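To whoever is on call:

I kicked off a structure prediction for a single chain this morning and the downstream step that reads the tokens threw a length-mismatch warning. I double-checked the sequence; it's 283 residues and nothing unusual in it as far as I can see. Pasting both halves so you can look.
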Amino acid sequence: MGSEGYILNDLQNPGALQLVYDTIDKGATRDEDIKTETCLSEGAIEETVSGLRLLRLIKKSQGEYQAVDLTWETNQPHLDFQLSALENLAKEATPQDWGKQSVVPLTFEFFVAHDLQWFYEEDKRLVEAIDDWQADTKEYRPTYGDNNRYEFNTKKLGNWGRLAAYLGLIQKVQGKRYAITPNPDLFYAAIMRATDAVGFTDNDAPHVEIRPFIEWLNENLLCISLVEDTKVPPIISHVLQQLIQQERVQYVEATDTAAVPLAGVSQSLPGIEADANTLRVIV
């Protein structure tokens, strides 16, 4: 996994990520330029540019920073930033050859796979379970120095919580408590891109079958999979339910493939058809 930093150590306060990214994108190429434009402390700048580099959103050459173009255009600048960062992390989250920063999507996958819909960042049993699952089930073992393994602990869970909230995957509830409630806009943007990549158009409406969509998500944005290969995980189902209730998508039977229920969601809700297997974008 190389000798680069580990994002849950290097980035504890993600709040200035987009500010510094935008400042570099507008031409502030050195630390002193960033300080002049943002009034951030030297320590905050050092931490933030380290985070941006680990998210593959900036590069540094001959002492100067350069912004990497965002890969999403939704007309929502912060959403574009979130999606681009998540996509960069997903590109390196490859089983058998995990990138060092795969801890970000893998920790989200842990919560989705175990249907844990909230957490307290100082829960020692939880961090032990996450650490064991990442090392033993996923075979993700990031190292430092002389092949020493980073162990997941409460401090890292807190740092993950702040970063995951900044990237739209979870929400801070109160104090050190978080809810695993992803921003529906993330998933709507993902659905729109997936309809182009692995979907189809019917009656002028973009469609994507749920199985190819989940597979596309797993390869391009988030580490998730169907429950027992038959159902959409409850956490993801609830996000899709929000989009259905917002009348942005419908869940319909559009192909002859098997139905895939939204776990934890009533299949009798308006916008969900019996034997549904496909997301249809409402246009």
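Update from on-call: the warning came from a stale cache, not from the record. Cleared it. Sanity check on the structure: The mean pLDDT is 96.
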